[in-house]
Structures are given as structure tokens and as C-alpha cells.
Amino acid sequence: MDRMIARFDAVQDGDLMLCPARGIAYQRDLSIRVPYDAAYFNKCAGYEDQEIARAINAGRIALVNRHAGDTAVLDIGVGAGEFIKKRGHAFGYDINPRAVEWLKSAGCYSEDFSAFTAFTLWDVIEHIEDPWKYFRAMQPGSLLFTCLPIFADLSRIRESKHYRPGEHLYYWTEQGFVDWMALHRFALIERQDFEIAAGRDSILSFAFRRSLPGYHETLGQYRELHSRFYGASAWLYLDAIAPQVFALNPSSILDYGCGRSDLVAHFWNDGKRRIAKYDAAIGAYETMPKEKFDLVLCTDVMEHVLMADIDQVFAEIRAKSKNALFTISMKPARAKLPDGRNAHVTLLNADEWTRWIKSVFGRAIRVPTQWDHILMLKTFG
Q1: Mean pLDDT of 30-44
Q2: Which of 97, 191, 218, 271 has a C-alpha 20 to 30 A away from that of 282?
Q3: CA 175, CA 133: separation in Å to the nearest integer?
Q4: Are 380 and 248 in contact (CB under 8 A)?
């Protein structure tokens, strides 16, 4: 399953799971799949050279050429290969053995994603259980062109001919799709409805560029922000954090993502307790201590981590201690990053954070605070 969508709140609606706040729905049991075989290939071939197919391919080729020029394109999920035949200077990749056979016989099969900077996934993304396995192979700056069904109301999916259990695994609203692509670092550069004009119901086409900031770019933004003495507010939560620390009585504490805060110094206990700081965006603290700790404090950190990198950060914290105390803001920050983004780059609700932390640490116990927008969770006690 898509690793982002798996983290969102969802409500069951029969065989579907709906994420209304995110504009996303998905098939509840993703193991139910149609076979992609010779029959499927032949079905796709049956649509070739019809009037609607000619109009659709003309629109697709025009969209690609506007942004990619005559650059070679890798078509992922080729159907029966009509786009490759019509456009030229295109190669293909597929999981359907019959499609692979055709591609190889035509001399245009490739699984070397690194050789391309432009990719097409026509009527494909909604079929893929884990799109990340393809997205991660696309280098920064790559172009991605796609089309898929778009829904105005996810509660009415079953009324659409695009409701295809076992074939269409995901369903999106337009904004939900664009926002989800952004989580994978794809910025929208064009949106078109030429497939609707050609006679296809509710099919929109998109051009994206993989140009949104990743881990290192975002870290650089925080380094610049911290140079202005940003990130010293953790002391605000001292009164809520202190009872939890004293109850656990750890002999060592790591302040993970300490920023400019001196929060952990309050627990030094006249030298009886080993304390340490780590923050990848602060030069003085960018080296991770080698030792393990009885407790990790992580205050005002997780909302500053891109959603795609949260698992990495949780893994680093878990490697230092099974006992962690998180304080997380669930609303936008007042501060902006130098590139204009809100400093809180990931906003999840309390249930979403709780499930994620529990899946990594085994426990996630909510600690009451005086602020509605502040979530405090501990993995011990």
C-alpha cells in the first residue's frame, strides 16, 4: 500500500476505505486483484485506432511534447503500446508478460529508470498497490505525465463506471491527487481535460515535475532559519514534560531535534544524569551521539519533518531508546521557511500521529496538555 495513504485517518465504507479529509479512497482489501495477462493486453488492443483513441493519444502526445520536447519517454504500464507507437522515441515497462513480450519484440522494452527523465503513466497509477516503488526511481527534476479518473464526491464512487474492484485500487478528488503527488515531491505544472472532451468520463490529465524539496533541501531551510535563533521554544512545555521525566527517572536523556533550546539541561540533576543534544540543522549538535539513552525527548520536531522522511526519523529515535516523549504541534506555524513554506511541513491529527508512533515503538500513550493543538505522547509508562 502507498506509505503515505496508509498513515491517514480512514473510515470503512463496505469494500472501500475513505479518507475524506485527504480526498483519497482505496480498496480495503488490496490483495483482490485482476490478472494482467494476455486477455488484458488484448482488451487494450481492442481500443486501438478508434476515433476516441486517436483524439486521446493526440492530446497525450501534445502534453508530453510541450514539456519534454523530443526527449525519450518511458511509458510505465503500456496497455497494448498505442502511445509508444504513436509518439515514437518512447520505451515501455510493464508487469504484464504479454506486454513485456510485445515491447521486447518491438525493441523498446526498458527497466532502466535512470536512463530517462520523462515518464508516462496513462491510466496506471490507480492500479498500482505501491506507486512509491516507481516514483523513487525517478530522479529529481524528472517529468511525469499521467491521467486517471477524478471524483468530485468520494462517497459516490460506486455510481461511476470507474469503480472497478480489483483493478482500480485508489480513487482521488482532484485536489487530493495533487496534494498526494506533492508528498512524493511532484509539483503540478499543467492540468488538462482533453480526454473528457474526447468522450472519456471524468478523466483528467496532469503534468508534474519532481522538483519539490526533499530531506536535504528542507534541512538546509531549517539551518538558515535556525541561524536567526529559531527553535528555542521547547521550554514552554517544561511543566508538562517534567513530571513524565521524573516519574521515569532515567539515568540518561537525549534531546533529539533540540534546536536552540536548553530544555534537557533542566534534567541534568547536578551531573548525576547524562544528557546530550542532537539536531541535524544545528552545527554544534549535528553529530548523533553513539550511546543509547534511557529516554529521548523530541519536542517540536516531528511537524518539521517531511512526511516521506518521518519513518527515518522515528527509526533514528528508536535506535537510541525505546522510551521517547514526543511533543507535536498539529496546526500551522507562524514562521515561514526561507522558501516560503510553512515551517510545519507535516500536519497530521492526534489519531494519525498516535497510530504511527505506536507502530514503531509498540506504545503511544497520550499525555494531557493545556493546549488543544499540542499533542504529547509517551512510549513508556
Answers
A1: 96
A2: 271
A3: 23
A4: yes
**Complete DSSP assignment for 155-221:** GGGGGSTT--TTT--EEE-HHHHHHHHHHTTPEEEEEE-HHHHHT-TTEEEEEEES-S--HHHHHHH
- pTM greater than the 0.85 cutoff: yes
pLDDT on residue 231: 59
What is the radius of gyration, based on Cα positions, of the chain?
Answer: 24
Residues 6+ apart with CB under 8 A from 11: 17, 18, 20
Write out pLDDT tens, residues 203-257: 999 999 999 999 999 999 999 988 776 656 677 889 999 999 999 999 999 999 9
**C-alpha angle 260/266/268, rounded to 5°?**
110
Cell 482500480 sits on residue: 168
Q: Which residue type, as a one-letter code, is found at position 103? A: L
CA distance 357 to 361: 6
Average the pLDDT over 53-76 and give the result. 97
C-alpha cell at 163: 469503480
Q: Where are the beta strands (DSSP E) in the chain?
A: 11-13, 16-19, 24-27, 73-76, 90-93, 118-122, 143-149, 170-172, 187-192, 203-209, 252-256, 274-278, 295-299, 324-329, 365-367, 374-378
For residue 376 the three cell numbers come to 504529547
- Rounded to whole angstroms, the Cα distance separating 53 from 56 reads 5
